[in-house]
Design goal:
The chain is α/β, with parallel strands linked by helices and 226 residues long. The chain is 42% helix and 18% strand. The chain has a 7-stranded mixed β-sheet, sandwiched between helices. Strands 1-2 form a two-stranded parallel sheet. Helix 2 runs parallel beside helix 3. The protein starts with a helix and ends with a strand.
Length: 226
């Protein structure tokens, strides 16, 4: 999104992404963006503490939980602070793993064994999403329960995901693009936030990990993959 902002101040741009869009300088405000950019925020980064809570509920025996972050993401330090607060509230130790390249992803999972981490939270990040199959495969290989930000991870074999629907967001992006083509100005189209979030559980993966998914999680799940 920053690249689009730097490239043009006149061509309308419709985005979806995470983080504090005002602090990043992408828009003047959510209600009135004020420039040539508007779109939808995923709120994925804000949900990381909730993901740690869900993972702790799913794997209550895990006293050490790792958080995988991308050091190149400008929102990373804020995510770490938020998840650290959540880990203290849950009484678990948090270990930070950083990976910004494919090889560093492999190194991060190798470090899980040395840290005795019993579970893993994967930060919502575009780089991680592009390597989601590798992340899911490594989690299976190392037998570590992991939670992700969107349905696509669980569909690829990930244990559990919690976050907005990418399909729904892309549909809304298309609607906004249509409005702009009909004459609407991005400056007048408010940046919107998702109002519903999907909790997806992969029971096949849970069984492979020897986990019993609590009824409290199954009852809240929007989709259960068997």
């Amino acid at each position: 999104m920053q690249a689009a902002k730097s490239a043009t101040s006149t061509i309308p741009v419709v985005f979806f992404g995470g983080g504090d869009l005002v602090a990043l300088g992408l828009v003047a405000g959510l209600a009135r963006p004020g420039g040539n950019l508007t779109g939808f925020t995923m709120m994925s980064l804000e949900l990381n503490p909730k993901r740690l809570e869900l993972l702790s509920e799913l794997v209550p025996q895990a006293r050490v939980i790792a958080l995988l972050v991308n050091p190149h993401n400008p929102q990373t330090e804020g995510v770490i602070r938020d998840v650290q607060d959540a880990s203290r509230a849950k009484g678990v130790q948090l270990q930070i793993l950083r990976a910004g390249t494919e090889s560093e992803i492999d190194d991060a999972f190798a470090a899980l064994v040395q840290l005795h981490a019993g579970a893993l939270v994967v930060m919502g990040d575009a780089f991680f999403f592009s390597w989601r199959e590798q992340l899911v495969a490594l989690a299976a290989r190392h037998a570590v329960p992991a939670i992700y930000d969107v349905h696509e991870y669980a569909a690829a074999g990930g244990l559990i995901s919690y976050g907005p629907s990418l399909t729904g967001l892309w549909r809304q992006v298309g609607i906004y693009a249509g409005k702009i083509l009909e004459g609407a100005k991005p400056a007048d189209l408010p940046v919107q936030q998702p109002t519903t979030f999907e909790l997806v559980v992969n029971l096949k993966t849970a069984t492979a990990l020897g986990l019993t998914v609590p009824p409290s999680i199954l009852a809240r799940a929007d989709e259960v993959i068997e």
